[in-house]
Amino acid sequence: MNKCISTLLFFTLCIAANAQNDSTATRTLGEVVVNAKGQIETAEKAVLTPTTLEKRHATNGFELLNVMQTPELDVSPRTNSISTKGGGQVVLCINGMEVLPEDVSTLRASNIISIEYIRTPSGKYAGKAALLNFIIKQMSYGGNVYLSASEGFAYKNGDYLAFTDFTKKQLTLSVAVSADWKHDHSHIEGHDLFRFADNSTLANSYSTDHSLRKQNSQSARFRLSHMGNKHQFVSYLNLTRQAEPSVETVTNNQYTGKYNLATTRTTTTNGKNLAPTLYANYVVWLPRKQTIDVSGSVEWGNNSYNSTNNETAQANITSKAVERNIAVNTSAQYSKSLNGSTTLSASLWHDHNYYKDTYTGTTEGQQRLTTNQTGALAQLSGSGQKHSYYISAGLSNTAVSLNNLHYNYCVPMAFYGGNYAFNDRQALSLNGYLTHTMFDPSNKNDMTVPTSFFQAVKGNHDLALIKVFGNTLTFNAQWGKSKASIFYNNYIYFKNIAHIFTADASTIYDMRVNDGTFYGNMLGVSYALSAFADKLRLDVTALEEYNVMRGNTYNMQRNVFRLRTSLAYLAGDWMFSLLYQTPRTDLDIREPFLIHMQPVYEMAINWNYKAWAVEFALSNVFSQFDKQHITMDYGHYNRNSWRYNEPKGRNINLKITYSIGYGKTKQRGDMELNKNINSAIIKGF
């Protein structure tokens, strides 16, 4: 397999070198004119221009990007997600305004003029892997209506969305409502071995007799925006509700060793979350090329979680948690252009989070967690005819209070990046960062919650931040109807957070701790080809990973190769597509464990006609579940389990979309449905 990726690298580099010699003599940067090419490289960004054929076979922004085959991006229209092929986070914008994936999923493809792809985003987006800015048609008055419904017939689920907006002059009002539901039969089976502090052992062979998780969520957002010649104001009220009305798992267990008995274990849980959010952003453009950008948000959360564990011949374990939380986020940025090519900017932000959790049942207690994160960055950026760069540096201070314990973390931050366009077909970019990531608030906890008669989840009040250092180097080239991208990712997690299992004479404890360093390396080659009057589209991506964990508890490494290929054919109003991804065994650093994953098969048939679009999709039809084998020796816990994942197994989906626009021109407003829930509750199941 290593020979495969080496061959692809050699082939791509040779072709790219020839492409450079063919194009430099006839093309310049500066003001770009598109001549039968869908991607133009400039000093600061790549400009992607969709063709009439591509717009004809796409309903929204995600579908259009998928048809356009940008080799650096991994686009999934069915899950409304987008990332770089290396797994990096991509910021989404529409006409320069940041939006969420739901916005792009309702952005009509016919309204998109071009897409700006920035590989080294700066400013408040520094540290992100990339930024996509959809340039769409402006309007003086009018609006849009978007309706979609998706139904799953194997894995039972549904997703529904209704959106409308209206613009008159500079004022836009939009309303969006969504709902979804899932019935998930995923379960776990396996053979585990536990070692207690007195050197006794307990083996457990278990299989699932019944498992069903019911989930649903609803969101509504009301948004008002005003776009002036020298200012921009955006505000919205978002309401989100999530619920798990019923989760039940029945497991048959056979214990040997310390205890010799056969049991039936029934676990039931339920929970609900409610989170209203109020957001506002104001941008003003001042004389002498100055800009001030101020934003703020307030979110209030009300969360509850209940669980019961009933096992044969054992006492019942119950837990009830009620949480009240509040999050306040504020930020301000000032920038000034010193001359035509250099810009100086400064930014400040403060994020406040407060959680109050009350636990009753088998374990009782109360937790109060407060985090206050304050940061400041200064940035210098510039550009020339063929190059652009940015350098930013600053400090971040995080103050944490857990009950009567207080912690303070002050860490430096730095972000940097640059892009060089050899010509309008080839570019080289570097994106780097030195920063930190916050811990999950549910893991910084003083509580110990039992999960069985010999197991418990234990919070860690000493959990600290993870320091992260990373770099991504990317080379892109085009020739004829071909596109290629070669990239290398390197990242280091200092004080990586992982599970540690400890034991006394009767209980095994699972706790998250900062332990050791993780080193990640990824080399990737992606190639895209259009043929037969651009009706046949081929995309192939090869990835080679070498990951290492070094610490007091874990010393392990893993080399992984995977190949992903897709093929699409566009015929009239129809599009037929296939996707295949090879099986692999990954090192999951979050647990950690080794996980073997099955191959992925997907097929889709799309029909687009005027305002209507229909998609019929099949994936992994050979099995109801995606079977994943997980192995790991944690010392006191030797895991050997099989996870049967239904959402990633057999899927048969039908999606119907209706979208229209009216008015002088066709522009839709911005929709931001936020379905995330903020919570610090520690859960046993």
From TrEMBL:
Secretion signal span: 1-19
Keywords on record: Signal
Taxonomy, superkingdom: Bacteria
SUPFAM superfamilies, sorted: Porins
Keyword Signal found: yes
Keyword Signal included in the entry's annotation: yes
Protein name per the record: Outer membrane receptor protein involved in Fe transport
